[in-house]
Amino acid sequence: MNRPNIILTGFMGCGKTTVGKLLARQLQYEFVDTDHLIEERSGMSIPEIFKSRGEAAFRSLEATVARELGAGEGMVIATGGRLMLDPENARILGMSGSVFCLAARPEEILQRVSRKSQAARPLLNSPDPMARIVELTREREESYARFPQISTSGKSPQEVMQDILARFRSR
Ligand code: S3P
Q1: What is the mean pLDDT of residues 2-7?
Q2: Atom 1 (ligand 1): residue with closest C-alpha?
């Protein structure tokens, strides 16, 4: 593999897209965001897909995208928060490069997702988004823990990018 991919996973609001764009620029890689790709392909926003076709249909679109991207190289891929928790997606994308899991505390996640519209994240569209974040984080923490962890707490996106770059280059 000449130009192995970098695959970013982690909970919603951990900065995968922001950091991924910086990384791609630095490495002169192509930046791909799986949520955006799915939106482009289906001509619908993520909330619309969840609403009109259901979560299972969205997960199956994610699997298609994972298979496709796993065959390429030279990409920084920011994945939707659950995409890499599917074993087949993780296997396919994992073979195409290095995976890093961005981590943040629930309070920081809430702050970040509140800056954008919470409606853009159907799974957090609840009267008590903090409780949902805590619940989903607990459900998923064991699965995320399988990937190399990158803490984002108190760091700027630039610093997180440098951390990943150092790990990627020393792999
Ligand atoms: C999801 C995360 C979202 C998006 C969808 C479901 C999840 O992506 O794929 O709303 O299950 O964690 P981001 O992690 O980019 O917000």
Answers
A1: 96
A2: 81
